[in-house]
Amino acid sequence: MDDGVDASDTPAEVDATFRTLRRVAVGYFVVFLLAVAAFPVLSLTLDWWSRSRLVGGMSPGFLVAAFGLYVFFTVLGVAAASLSSAVEHRMLGTRADDDPFGDAVADASFDDGRVGGDPFAGPHPTDTFRLDDGPGPGGRA
Fold this sequence. Notes:
4 helices, mainly alpha
């Protein structure tokens, strides 16, 4: 099925993106797990966590469980989703239209009629150029 997008993602790019996104996911899962594990640890180690009273007679542990964890999980989820989207956008989906060098290379024409080419391949044997062709000291402007 052709969706009109000419993606140029190589298997190596996809694999590198997968590994990066896996590291992001594992990192955010560790933060999630530490937050969930901290709640019972605080209840067992700090007496004031469950015995003191704050707003409306609620303990700090109850307030965190009732409200704080939802705020924390929402912020964590939004942060993980935005980072994952940014990583995927930067590492995948480069189309020929998005490539800053793609149009210049594809539209370049040489004196012998060749079009395009690899910008990193070096000069073609039929290309002629001199060091004094450009502007600058000793060059023609």
